[in-house]
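Title: Prediction job returns without error message
Component: structure pipeline
Severity: low
Priority: P3
Assignee: unassigned

Description:
Job completed but the reporter wants confirmation the result is attached to the right record. Sequence as submitted:
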Amino acid sequence: MTGPELIAIAVFLFTYALIIDERIHRAVAAMAGAAVIVFVGVVPWEMIPEYLDLGTIFLLMGMMIIVNTARGSGLFEYIAIKTAKLSKGSPMRVLILFALVTAVTSAFLDNVTTVLLLTPMLLYIARVMDLNPVPFLLTEIFASNVGGAATLIGDPPNIMIGSAAGLGFNDFLFTMGPIVVVDFIVVILFLALLFRKRIAVGKEAMERIVQTLEGLDERAAIKDRSLFIKSVITILLVVVLFFVHDKLGVQPAVVAMTGAALLLFWSRVPPEEILEKIEWPALFFFGGLFIIVGALVETGLISQVAEFVVAHVHTTGEAMIIITWFSAIASAFVDNIPLTATLIPLIQDMGMAMDVEPLWWALSLGACLGGNGTAIGASANVVVLGVAEREGINITFIEFMKIGMVILVLSVAVGLGLLWMRFMW
């Protein structure tokens, strides 16, 4: 190996180890690794714009601004209370309805933001109804990860894949959307069967729950009615533009940033209040990671791996199976963002020998649904369990994995079967 190749591999592996270890923040690890790569010249300064995926970064930034602005109106608390009331006091309906709201919201907003907003309200509803919150929290996590796979903006791996492969919002919606619907039904049926005894209540308890829910006023959750209306209109407008952005010749990042600018301008919310709430560490993490993976591309290492894979994998179907299960199992134990960033250039180079369109969907399926496997498999998992722990609710790693691995295998197997029927038959 040449010196640049050794440096690229060493920095990549060391950064990855720091991300997994978590004693150093992943954004700091990625920025440090990128600094080394650029400082020693493995990636020349003039090549940084080529590897720094600004489409992904600005799409995330725009959606973060919209969500953080809308949060101040009480929009998400309103949705949570309205959902609880629709259950009519049935714990099973609460579980299913909250799962549905979480999945749909995660498809159109960042799933981490979704669970940050809905988890406190879910805990509140469980407390009011005097129910064990663990089944509801686990269901929320699984629904968020499944729902996020449905659209371009639902989960960071999809944003990265869409940018790299030139896939638009509708491409994801009409390819992954039906798969997610089937997977959601399968997962919810399994969880309903698994948790039916843990959330069962008697007739008297049911009547008390109904009375309690009737006492909640979703309208009282609206803190700023004007901002509430403006937020709903802006979010609906952004979603509509996501549907037609390819026909307009506008990139998803432009849609997100336009919606963010519109809501800030229209609402007159002080921008410093919103901008300071943006997950800047996540954005810098992305930037640093893109440069580190760019070093593997720049030195030709990704091309060498692709040539090796192509030499041993003879059909697109074989490659699709390998990528799906590898990305799913790996995503259960390591962050799916660096994993996706590493596999993207590999798939791009495989395009010299086979049709890679099914491989993009295989990567999306595995990277998004694999996060359900363990407590650290996805950011949403960590966020929900962290909020629960602060409330004195402890869900152990093993307890999560016993259910999560079943969900992983079940959802990925069903999803891969549907992908195979679409592209291989």
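Comment from assignee: result matches the submitted record. The chain has a mean pLDDT of 86.
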